[in-house]
Amino acid sequence: MGNLSQASTRLLEAQDFDAWVALRDTVLDSLPNSDVYVREDDEENFFQAHMYPGGEVIGVFVEDALVAYAMLELPGEHEAHNLGQVIGLAPEQQGMVAHLSSCMVLPQWRGRQLQRALLSARLELALACGRPLCMAMVSLLNHRSRHNMLRQGLRVVWTGMIDGLQRHVAMIDLEQGMGFAAEGELLLPSLDYEALRAAALAGYACVGEVRAPDGAVSLRYARHLVHNRGPR
Question: What contacts 142, CB < 8 A, 6 or more positions away?
Fold first, then answer.
């Protein structure tokens, strides 16, 4: 798992809830900005919603201690929080959606590609569950998660307000892929919400990023070639 040879993985169960909460306490306390991840109002309900058959939670353990986790949700096609519904995906496609939900790694175990490995594992799991349209909600400030998703082939296809927060929705189609025009790219500041939202509404999607020497991040937007699974 990642660059951590001594790690083991298994699906979390109900009895792992306390360890899961403790890990989240540590990670959330370390965030530079609370907008990067806003804690759920009912964590126990959130955890249970990701238990089979509603989803799965992958745990990474070192010497029986939980050091990372990643959640996959299989939302109902008519559920209001289905991200396919949020971004305007056709109703008949919303049953194909899987959510790449929360993923956290303890600070002392970062830098070992755990988040990337857990993303790959969830994509494989989603496909095995017959959910090829994988989506994730990401804060504009969460550069690390967005970077890993872009590297894995997800594309930011929507930007807007979700529960009063400025959020991206990243998406990948594991069956049909997603096509983008080679010409006419836009380069937009990563924190310019209005410009990013306007680009998405105009049919563009974020396909990459550019980092300046001073650390500023700009996002590369390409025109999304419409196929039968694109957001509306």
Answer: 36, 37
